[in-house]
Design a protein that fits this description.
CATH class: Alpha Beta
Number of strands: 8
Helix content: 40-55%
Shape: globular
Structural class: alpha+beta
Order of helices and strands: HEEEEHEHHEHEEHH
Amino acid sequence: MAMAANEERLRRELVAVARHAEALGLVQHTQGNFSARIPATDRILITPTAVPYRELEPPDIVTVDLAGTLVDGTHPPSTEVAVHTLCYRQRPEVGGCVHVEPPYLNTLYVVDRPIPNLLGNFVYLFEGRGLAVIPAMMSGNQEFAAAAIAALEGHLGVVWKNHGLFCIGADVRSALDRCVAAEQAARVHYQALALGREPQLIPEAVQAAMVEAMRRRGRAI
């Protein structure tokens, strides 16, 4: 009974997070994908493929095992299920994953202008390490998943060039928080460049103090 209630809560949370991401402009229509580990199991919940977020309901969320095999669902899982499942297999501390397609971030990375540490939230939520990057690749396959998760080592978010952003967290909401912080920093960076100025970054000593403050608060990931 408790496990079933917990799974239902996670289903509702995934729907809420997906709709919130769309409301924030991080995804449109059916872009992106969202997942959550079901605690104390070898299963995850993930958004289905090709279901618009405005129509998405908790029963539409798909259950797969850590190999990506369908366990339960009336829709096929996201086409990026391989990335999510590989992440959960290799990073046992991860409880939620989010892939979004944020326009400002994508704009910067297609012209090779990575986001520097220019905003506090970006430093805090990515522990001062910024974002990993992989080159443009065909996604939706094991080769892409392996490249994305290998690049993610030592990081909390990875840019898929010409595609989008993938972030991890202790749960799906914290993963979304990181996506929001990254797009906010991308927008500020873009606007600074549009003014013809290079942004002034947060001093390294201040960045280090921010990261230490987050660690003292006990935020695992």
